[in-house]
Write a structure and sequence with these properties.
Elements (H helix, E strand, L loop, with lengths): L1 E3 L2 E4 L3 E3 L8 H9 L4 E8 H5 L3 H5 L10 E6 L3 H13 L4 E6 L4 H4 L11 H14 L4 E8 L7 H10 L4 E8 L10 H8 L8 E4 L5 H11 L3 E4 L9 H11 L8 H18 L2 H14 L10 H9 L3 H9 L8 H4 L2
Parallel strand pairs: 3-4, 3-10, 4-5, 5-6, 6-7, 7-8, 8-9, 9-10
Antiparallel strand pairs: 1-2
Helix pairs in contact: 4-6, 6-7, 9-10, 11-12
């Protein structure tokens, strides 16, 4: 059984990764419904939170139905990060997660997120001060290093543990890789199997099927697996994985219409949370990424139309006209 502090996540938990513009409350609740054992908010800017930027404060809203839930925070200044972490704690998440892994230029290029991999003393200072300041468990999410010549995660993991964190999530890429190439789970396994490590290790990167999720548990011994891009347009991935981990068998597929209805539900929730225009813009990345439409012949014009639709009516009209084979290839292969 895996625990983060006093938060019991059970055996072989599968977690929803924090993703900017993706893991809003409606998507978190949907992934929870399909079996995600823990969910994470979009990442919160410490600078914006301390300045009381309304859009950032909105990200702190959590619902009891999604628990256990973590708020993820990023920044680079010690005092600002501590103050922001205390504001996060007031929102009553179960866990506070520090983002030392985001590779995008506007974050890492300014020294926050994965940029902290080039300033380890500051990373450790921030971590230690936040752990001391909060009563809830504090965790860290980071990458294996800045680039191929600086894969520092094995030693770094020990030093972060010494700061008092309750768990460590490792994305198996360097910052230089961004999201390209393959995640290096070997180094994640080295950290997990380091006899000096006592805290849970959560592995992240390239887990898109139930089979490779099980392989990550079996081969590398991680305490939990975190799913990021594999959940885009496919929140039911958690149900597939949990079923496979429990039974060793693939979950029998539902009808195409069933999966399409889930995507429609995402659209409805997104529009309700924002408004029609912004809600549809927000959901486009799910429609673009979903594997549901893979293998449908001559689908490109329909895909273009889906991503250009500007109203819910237009979008649903297009979706209702999609004529799959009995099931798309992604699901037929089950």
């Amino acid at each position: 059984m895996m625990k983060i502090g006093t938060v019991d996540l059970g055996d072989k938990p599968v977690l929803l990764a924090p993703m900017e513009d993706v893991t809003d409350i409606s998507f978190r609740l949907m992934c929870k419904r399909f079996g995600a054992d823990m969910v994470y908010t979009e990442f919160v800017s410490s600078d914006a939170l301390v300045r009381s930027v309304d859009k950032t404060k909105q990200k702190l809203k959590v619902a009891n139905e999604e628990r256990p839930v973590a708020i993820q925070l990023y920044g680079k200044e010690v005092d600002t990060m501590v103050e922001a972490a205390q504001l996060c704690e007031e929102a009553q998440p179960d866990v506070l997660d520090i983002n030392f892994g985001c590779p995008v230029k506007r974050v890492a290029g300014k020294g926050a997120g994965a940029g902290m991999l080039r300033n380890v003393p500051q990373m450790l200072k921030i971590t230690e001060k936040i752990v001391r300041a909060l009563k809830i468990p504090v965790t860290v999410k980071t990458r294996i290093g800045w680039d191929a010549e600086n894969k520092i995660i094995v030693e770094l993991a020990e030093r972060l543990q010494d700061c008092g964190i309750a768990a460590l999530t490792i994305h198996g890429r360097t910052r230089a890789q961004m999201y390209t190439g393959l995640a290096d789970w070997t180094l994640i396994g080295v950290v997990k199997n380091n006899p000096r490590m006592r805290i849970p290790i959560i592995g992240n990167g390239d887990v898109t099927t139930a089979e490779n999720c099980r392989d990550c548990f079996d081969r590398y011994g991680v305490d939990a697996v975190m799913i990021g891009r594999g959940s885009l347009g496919r929140p039911w991935i958690f149900q597939e994985i949990k079923y496979f981990l429990a039974t060793g068998k693939k979950l029998p597929p539902e009808s195409f219409a069933y999966y399409l209805s889930i995507l429609k539900e995402q659209v409805i929730h997104s529009v309700a949370r924002l408004d029609e225009r912004r809600g549809i813009l927000h959901i486009r990345r799910h429609l673009a990424a979903t594997p549901l439409f893979k293998g449908i012949p001559d689908f490109k014009p329909t895909r273009v139309a889906l991503l250009r639709a500007e109203t819910v009516t237009q979008l649903f009209d297009i979706m209702d006209k999609i004529s799959p084979q009995p099931l798309p290839l992604y699901l037929e292969n089950k």
